[in-house]
Amino acid sequence: MMMRRDRLLLAVTLTAIFAADLYFVLVPKLRHRQPGPADGGCLCPSSRGTNFTLAGYSGLTTPWFSNTTSVDLQGKGVGATDDSTDWGSKLGRLFAHPLYNIQTPELGLEERLMQSEELMEYYRRKVSRWERHMKLYSKAAAALNVTMLEHQVTFDPEASWLKFHLGINRYALYARDNPAITRLLQDMQATTVISADYTQDEKALKGACDCTQVVKPSGHHLKLALKMQNFGKAMFKPMRQQRDQETPDDVFYFVDFQRHNAEIAAFHLDRILDFRRVPPVVGRLVNVTGEILLTTHNEDLRSVFFTSPANNTCFFAKCLYVCKTEYAVCGNPDLLEGSMSAYLPGLSIAPRISIPNPWIRSYTFTGREEWEVNPFYCDTIKQLYPYNSGNRLLNIIDMAIFDFLIGNMDRHHYEIFTKFGDEGFLLHFDNAKGFGKHSHDEMSILAPLSQCCIIKHSTLLRLQLLSQDHYRLSDVMRESLGGDALQPVLAEPHLQALDRRLHRVLKTVHRCFRRLGEAQVITTDFIDTSTMPESVKPVAMPNKER
Amino acid sequence: MMMRRDRLLLAVTLTAIFAADLYFVLVPKLRHRQPGPADGGCLCPSSRGTNFTLAGYSGLTTPWFSNTTSVDLQGKGVGATDDSTDWGSKLGRLFAHPLYNIQTPELGLEERLMQSEELMEYYRRKVSRWERHMKLYSKAAAALNVTMLEHQVTFDPEASWLKFHLGINRYALYARDNPAITRLLQDMQATTVISADYTQDEKALKGACDCTQVVKPSGHHLKLALKMQNFGKAMFKPMRQQRDQETPDDVFYFVDFQRHNAEIAAFHLDRILDFRRVPPVVGRLVNVTGEILLTTHNEDLRSVFFTSPANNTCFFAKCLYVCKTEYAVCGNPDLLEGSMSAYLPGLSIAPRISIPNPWIRSYTFTGREEWEVNPFYCDTIKQLYPYNSGNRLLNIIDMAIFDFLIGNMDRHHYEIFTKFGDEGFLLHFDNAKGFGKHSHDEMSILAPLSQCCIIKHSTLLRLQLLSQDHYRLSDVMRESLGGDALQPVLAEPHLQALDRRLHRVLKTVHRCFRRLGEAQVITTDFIDTSTMPESVKPVAMPNKER
User: Exposure pattern of B478-498 as b/e (b: 16+ CB <10 Å)?
Assistant: First the structure.
């Protein structure tokens, strides 16, 4: 009897200790190790690249509902969408919400960026020029004894990149339910690369390396334009930094690395915010030998390749010759991860203008711009064209919110399509400087919002939705990024930072409410119909009227 | 009674668990955290800099015994040294060993690098030139409104750097028992800095930044010459890399960072190997504002200072303007750690020659030098002057062993004092590329030893001694480095690597024994008396005769 008691006591003690260990040590460790999607989807790095299926992208094709007008921020009953939605998926739930299912009016010709015939003609010309070029180049390469891979090109009128270009309209770069976007991401992730080259702005520099002239050569010079077999084109930015590394505090934003994972994550965030102003981006493991060195026709590019002491194939920034191998990126031994961003239609057929951001930074060690010292800066801006009418200023504020969430201080310019005039949306290009520091929220990025104290009603409603547990921004981002070949795309602290920053955006809006009243701050998304072609007129969206 | 038993059982169980926790968790953790000296000396980082006492350097002043001729590798009984030696200190034991107490013959005038009168005259001229310069400069600075700190200079005939320069002789840079060396280390660690400037070779570059011309601008350009109040001069190399970071495998040795801690550790290792061919080096926390920015008279140097986004004072490499702040180093907010290496006497009074290392590397991505492809390379070298006679080749092999131990692949040139002619020792300058990777032993650095298969008898005996548990190299290094202000100077894996590499050196020697026989391999340290002045003749050291 006594023995039994002893045993019981011992058993109880050990069980208690075991339970405590389980609770305080093991569980937190496991939690820490698996920052994966809430549904327990596999995050194993071994699934990267080779056998990648785009299951995670199924969320991209939620239907484009047509009869929803009421906004239900509780997200409880959304009528017609109930049946088709996976309620275990926060992302599915988000995209099924009425706020995300506001119908765009029937699009007139002038509201689409590209006409089908024009684009096809352009495509055909490109292919035949390529074929002529290849005939000459193959001979030259054989004569010079240059090893190169030759791939057949295909003329495919159904190519995903064509569909993407054709889908661009005056409201956004793509519709969320456009299946061509899913295909485009798959293509950029897996299709054969037939040639590689420096990008146009790289070529414009002509290898210039005078640091007093070029603001930031360091990050730029490693990005490349890759052409796919079906003639789709993507900008490749190689990995420069580990996901768990933070940008050191002493580094200025304008010399910070470009991060391939920031480029990928920014696309997903933009889509989740329903802006759809970032061209599609996907992660890819690129074979630097087979897909760059052996496909490029650019002698300069070929000349920057070398084999590292560890026998990996590497290449370095063009203008920083030999001694600058610190800037090199290396495959392992050939495979290098990076981001692939879909190209927009060429400037010759779809011109864009680049406009300095009114809240530009000084890009010097000590300089300060007016907005940093003048709290009434926005009053001046509001008087100036094109910020004095239309929704340009509201779009700038959308962009500031987006940049604040990703922590991007490097938005010196923004671009718009010439065709859509001053009322067109702003392209959120080049987001690779984002996600550098998760532990710091750079409040100055929010200056347009905090100084102007206006925000689009539709934007505010979506931000409020994403701040709810039911949809939480970090959770939908984790789920969305879980489908990428390079998952986990973001380290967990960066996802957590999104929630914290979202909260700070909403706090900033509430401070504006207290200062000026809601009516002054929340602004109906406004389109000046007088400057638009006839077909564009019925544009005010249902939820934007208050 | 039953209660008591239960309590006892509970107490025993808890005690057992606590003991297990203590043994398996706490102790390893503490061990891991405190890789400090075996004698339990304080390793707290807070002791760095301000209240630093040179207790750890007491080992520097072991007596210079005069009557020891027999070599006792077991290190058990060493007669006269027994009483004065701290047997708890492996370093004390090592320096008390007869091998480390071989008397140098009385030095003739020609065997000393400097004559006292000549050096004093040089010193006086320097001081008066400085005073003239300061009068003019102070006026100019006041006119230009440049803030600067002015310090009094002192003329001190007993200055430690003077004593160091006077002690340099044809056998070594210093005697281990010279108390001036301990003072010199203390001075470099704590004396007021009165001016800072670029180094001479930096100035020779004139900010040149053409990477095809300059092999390795990246590391070089941040080193500075600092002048002390007593006119001693030291080369400051700032910290560029954390102690636990390893150089990535893809980085070529010639673009690797310079490491301040490698510079410090190399001085200690050289002293432990009893070469004494590295000028004294010590760690220091330098105030980059007070001791560099506000003391320099060089406008170029002042212009590269800036305040980082984290409000730290930083400066960057001269030739890599603005955009190259990646290369900057920053104080915190002003204090920056670095190495201080004592300057040798100026070239005008003690000229040196720089000679290419016969085992130089190619400094290109793909090039190979002859020694890398020709296994009989040493036979060629042995025919060539000055390697065909005297002990130059043996000195090269000493240097190769030293470089292999620290993992330095960057020994493109070596220097000798002109005065001592071809028989002078080789200076082991510029060791900051060492200690980059602890996990890799670069066997090619040992090529001079493995290809020539000769080694000085005295060197081999010391290496054998250091491979014994009784003296173990890593232990004496840890103890020696424990006295530096920036301790721990080396991360523990680097110390462990020293033992492993020492073992590989000895294995290489034994392979030579098997190939050629001991008699062929072990070489009496030879000095060709015919080329030396009369006073130098009685030079063969007792232990070097077999």
Answer: bbbbbbbbbbbbbbbebbebb
